[in-house]
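Quick one:
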Amino acid sequence: MRFLHPSYASLSRMSITLYHHPFSRAANVIWILEELGVPYELRFVDILKGAQKAPDIVALNPMGKVPILTDGDLVVTEAAAIGLYLADRYSLGKLAPSPDDAARAAYLRWSLFSPSVIEPAVSAKTSGGQFKPSQVGWGTYESVIASMESAISGRSYVLGDRFSMADCIFGGAVRYLLRFKVLEATPMFTAYAERLAARPAAQRADAKNAAIAKEHGLGG
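Output:
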């Protein structure tokens, strides 16, 4: 399945391929690609049937997981890394603050906070796992929530009034957790998620994920 942003309609060859399933973190990468406005191709990987463990997938990602993004001969895995890579390559100075921009510090901080702190903290919380706060990277669940709130308190986006790739990564996690009722729907989180959901690129991505799920007979 191929998608061309209108500004790239004249391009006959696309180099970006996203190995995708709408019930995986790859769903959020479609939003990232839509925000960037670059042409891309989707390759459906049926993770419900274990297709992510096929030899050709494992050759790209030994973890046997999606998302996987190829850009020409380059291979990038891990959703946050994919977002940071794409923003630096295709939107430096726009969706990605330039290295000499002071905003890049917060941008990197909250982009990496999502996979390294939010996801393991939520997994530990929902599984009932017991850990000593001093021995894990996320400390306590309460401190994680307080930190998430501090990232957007009094701001429209992570960087204030400026939307960035950090909102796709950090905000994508917030949207997902709210959708599945894992995160308390506080007014602050809800308003932030609604701002993100109102973006045309997010709406296009949601529609494409829904259409792919329907095409493959997937519920949920």
